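Q: D-aspartate ligase, please. Structure only.
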Amino acid sequence: MRIPDEQPFVPVILGGDIGAYSMAREFHQEYGAISVLVPTVITGIIDHSRILEPRPFSAQDDDAAFARFVAGLGREFGELVAGPRPLLLLGAADQHIRFIARNAEALGEWFTIPYVGEEVLDRATGKDDFYALCSRLQIPYPATVDFDCAPGADDPATLAARLAAESVPFPAIVKPSDGVAWGALDFAGKKKVHTVASAAELTGLIRDASAAGYTGTLVIQDLIPGDDSGMHLVTFFSDRSGEVRFASTGRVIVEEHAPGALGNSAAIVAEPNETAVREGAKMLKELGWTGFSMFDMKRDPRDGSYRFFEINPRLGRNHFYVTAAGHNVARFYVEEYLHGGLAGAPGLTVAQDRHLYTILPLRLLRRYVPADMKAGVEQLIAAKRYSHPLYYARETNPRRWYYILASSVNHYRKFKRHHPAA
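A: Structure for D-aspartate ligase:
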């Protein structure tokens, strides 16, 4: 597939997961635009799609080679006989946003880049920096201890005392401050997020991560009680002046528990949450943020607070819950960055409509809906107010629908193997 010359702009999306496909769908729904997707390999999520042009590049960890490849896409799709065409450069994962920030000056020749620069990115996305920001703004977060894995930096022998002093008991949550570096590691038992039951298990994890080459910080936290449905999220859009213009909140029903996907939402109910909007907007204003961002948080049943975990410097993997509830995210990119600014009066718009987002078959999803959400979820299903990002009627290739069917069946296998009993 070629991008038609008459298409007025082209989204170039780095990545090939369900979040990248969701962005391509959103641009197609709103503007009829075909997007260019740049995965490492073509998977069933994007294969046989009629709404995107896949351009895989496997060596995305080679910064210089990847930058040359992306610049080549800029020349190919931006230079027309009639004159230059606007291109949006977007990323579906944290490593893509880092890559774009590092290469913004060179790639800015071809692309409009709707992300913050490296300085703001550094202040926001390192988990130790993020929690320092929360502390300064008096925003709740889990009790936390940072452990620096760089050789000679911190002493594992004194870690237990530090955890006790900060009221971080076992079992505890352990996650990397540098998610990009962690993703490149390979060691037995590695997970996106670990739960450790004892000091000995924590010391073993530190040893294995250090031996694998991790030299960043590990964040060790109080394990907030409760199941997946205690998780909440909020997606924001801030205009180029740093004013927070839009927010959409959601409550998670169930997350994935397979090691490589641990913590990824599998079903979300979009619904209002005033606390999440108020606290998240406070942080964005402090940072001078521009573009999209997303916060994860969990409601602590011990005191009713919402404890913030991190900021994603982009649309989240499951951001389609925002579009499904009536606010197509593609419009914000195009209006603010290509058409001169968001339409309408300044000020914050907060999404209010409830909608069910799910990547699970409804029959499987119903097994995991908590008691206090059952009635509301059934009402949304009965009213046909639910969406799956891959179920797009404009996709007509039967091979693609076969993949979606097989993927649905595979969810039953994955949840039977990895998910705790409902």
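A: Brief note, in case it's useful. The chain has 15 helices and 18 strands.
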